[in-house]
Known about the structure:
Structural class: alpha/beta
Helix content: 40-55%
Number of strands: 5
CATH architecture of the domain at 10-110: 3-Layer(aba) Sandwich
Distance between the termini: 20 Å
Order of helices and strands: EHEHEHEHE
Strand order of the largest sheet: 3-2-1-4-5
CATH class of the domain at 10-110: Alpha Beta
Largest sheet: 5 strands, parallel
Number of helices: 4
Strand content: 15-25%
Amino acid sequence: MFPRWSALSVISKILVAVDGSENARRALDSAVQLSSETKAALIILTVVQPPAIMGVQRDLLGTLETLLEKEARIMLANYSTLAEKKCAKVETVIGRGYPSKVILKSAEDASANLIVVGSRGLSGIKELFLGSVSHTVVQNSTIPVLVVK
């Protein structure tokens, strides 16, 4: 529980980016907890990145994109069900494009005042570095970003 005078008490809208990974699930859990304790609205975002496969027929690419979007809808439905048990307001969004750009634009469009992302779970010396998406979001965001390990 956070004290009422905490800086977290000014949070009114949280955007959490998920991709189905374990790190993203931990980010979701943290965002749900923050949303629950601050009464902030929660936006759960996943990004479908169009496949860049050269030499593949358009209809096959369309089928692949359709499958990716179907998986995204299922994942968001599951995450939304979990979040709605603890959060007052939950919204889900499927973005399309390069993940870090979509995360930043979605946060801006939604007037979010906190972004929550998962870090990349690497071992050894690589633990010093964030994943490329979380790193780009941290470097370019105009609002606070919480990176969850």
